[in-house]
């Protein structure tokens, strides 16, 4: 016959595995939701699209902190005594017989305590608690991953969930010959002017104040594209919609 201590140890293993799964899923949900927000913001803020490494790292860090916080809060699941009390709270009919049996299993009262504990089924209580804890976590992770997939696909025409994390595009999405066919130039004047940035579609020339930031972007990948500024060669870098320099 399974002793009370063995039943509590089994419950402890189940709760521990559930706590880890819950923490991981909430961490994944947080990271994916933040990454989806970064992709969405990059559509309205081209400057953010040029370098998303730091925001992506922050998103992963926040997700890890969420997981770590939940694991810390669930640290008491490692204590056999705390798990026994957790069971007692949910099955008050045990009348602390389970805790006493776990702590004083070698006493003369052990057989009486074991027989009393054996009358109650702990497994359904454990399964119910795990279901209530894990269902929202898995649902949130699934929704956040779907949002990330949808936002990254809408932004770059990709169907890869990891593309938003890597910040890369699939090769061949745009023909090499068309990478200069639809240029977009964004001119950001110096801050002292108080002027707003302007966007030009496929201009033949660009006029700007000295000290302005001029960003040229287009469709396709950035491989082999360079711009010359005096004697300086600037390499194009990939962004969520193609390349920019």
Q: What is the share of helical residues?
A: 40-55%
Overall SS class: alpha+beta
Termini gap: 73 Å
Extract low-pLDDT stretches: 157-174
- Output mean pLDDT: 83
Radius of gyration: 29 Å
Strand coverage percent: 5-15%
Q: Tell me how many strands there are.
A: 7
For the biggest sheet, the summary is: 5 strands, antiparallel
Alpha plus pi helix count: 8
- What gross morphology would you assign? rod-shaped
With strands numbered from the N-terminus, the spatial order across the biggest sheet is: 2-1-3-7-6
Order of secondary-structure elements:
HHHHHHHHEEEEEEE
Characterization of the model:
The chain has 245 residues and is an alpha+beta fold. 53% of the residues lie in helices and 12% in strands. The chain contains eight helices and seven strands; from the N terminus they run ααααααααβββββββ. It has helices spanning 4-44, 46-50, 53-73, 80-90, 97-103, 110-117, 123-156, 163-166; strands spanning 184-188, 198-201, 213-218, 226-229, 232-235, 237-239, 242-244. A five-stranded antiparallel beta sheet has the order 2-1-3-7-6, with no helix packed on it. The protein has a two-stranded antiparallel ribbon with strand order 4-5. Helix 1 (4-44) runs antiparallel to helix 3. The longest helix has 41 residues, at 4-44. The N and C termini lie far apart (73 Å).
Feature tags:
single chain, 245 residues, alpha+beta, 5-stranded antiparallel sheet, two-stranded antiparallel ribbon, 8 helices, 53% helix
């Amino acid at each position: 016959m399974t002793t009370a201590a063995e039943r509590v140890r089994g419950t402890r293993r189940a709760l521990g595995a559930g706590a880890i799964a819950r923490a991981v899923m909430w961490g994944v949900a947080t990271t994916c939701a933040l990454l989806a927000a970064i992709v969405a913001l990059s559509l309205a803020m081209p400057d953010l699209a040029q370098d998303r490494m730091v925001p992506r790292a922050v998103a992963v860090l926040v997700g890890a902190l969420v997981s770590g916080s939940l694991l810390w809060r669930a640290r008491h699941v490692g204590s056999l005594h705390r798990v026994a009390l957790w069971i007692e709270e949910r099955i008050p009919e045990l009348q602390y017989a389970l805790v006493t049996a776990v702590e004083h299993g070698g006493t003369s009262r052990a057989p009486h305590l074991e027989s009393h504990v054996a009358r109650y089924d702990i497994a359904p209580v454990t399964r119910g608690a795990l279901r209530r804890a894990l269902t929202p976590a898995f649902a949130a992770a699934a929704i956040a991953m779907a949002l990330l997939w949808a936002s990254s696909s809408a932004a770059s025409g990709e169907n890869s969930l990891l593309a938003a994390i890597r910040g890369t595009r699939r090769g061949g999405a745009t023909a090499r010959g068309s990478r200069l066919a639809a240029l977009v130039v964004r001119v950001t004047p110096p801050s002292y002017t108080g002027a707003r940035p302007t966007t030009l579609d496929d201009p033949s020339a660009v006029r700007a104040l000295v000290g302005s930031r001029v960003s040229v972007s287009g469709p396709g990948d950035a491989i082999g594209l360079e711009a010359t500024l005096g004697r300086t060669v600037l390499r194009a870098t990939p962004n969520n919609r193609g390349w920019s320099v």
